[in-house]
Specification:
The chain is built from nine helices and no strands. With 155 residues, the chain is mostly helical. The protein has a single domain, classed as Leucine-rich Repeat Variant.
Length: 155
């Protein structure tokens, strides 16, 4: 039965990721954990790396649910792919990735670099979210911002 679920999980993710389909990531997380997080992890990782933006956003939400219930250690294999999604072409994927990096408290130099790029070049709404994450987790960035403000106030 578990192998049937694993075979059908990518289809289920695509169906539930359709914005016209009412669902919750919590509901799908419950199904995944019922069948076993470890068993489903390779499928979820593959779908996170897919070209389907809707599925990527859903998988990020499922990963956040897992971290909330089972702890950050249970989702370590997802950290690098989520950080990679900070530079995704789809703005909604970037929004989800920024939120996940902040919510999961991912303290990673690549994440910090990507968040800095978002602050510098992305649209204001996403840039603000990225800035909030940086201010919460990146002491070096906080120092740079403080120095920038000091320099501006003395000129």
């Amino acid at each position: 039965m578990t192998s049937d679920f694993l075979t059908q999980l990518p289809i289920l993710l695509r169906l539930l990721a359709d914005p016209r389909t009412p669902h919750t990531s919590s509901e799908l997380w419950c199904r995944v954990t019922t069948f076993g997080w470890e068993e489903c992890e390779p499928v979820l990782l593959a779908e996170l790396k897919s070209d389907n933006s809707d599925v990527q956003r859903l998988v990020i939400a499922i990963v956040e649910e897992q971290a909330e219930h089972a702890g950050i250690d249970s989702i370590q294999n997802f950290v690098r792919p989520i950080v990679t999604l900070l530079s995704h072409d789809d703005r909604l994927v970037r929004v989800c990735a920024v939120s996940a990096v902040g919510g999961l408290m991912i303290d990673d130099q690549n994440a910090a670099d990507s968040l800095r790029q978002i602050v510098r070049k992305d649209e204001p709404t996403i840039a603000r979210s990225a800035l909030q994450v940086l201010l919460a987790f990146d002491d070096k960035f906080v120092q740079e911002v403080a120095e920038w403000f000091r320099d501006r106030s003395t000129n």
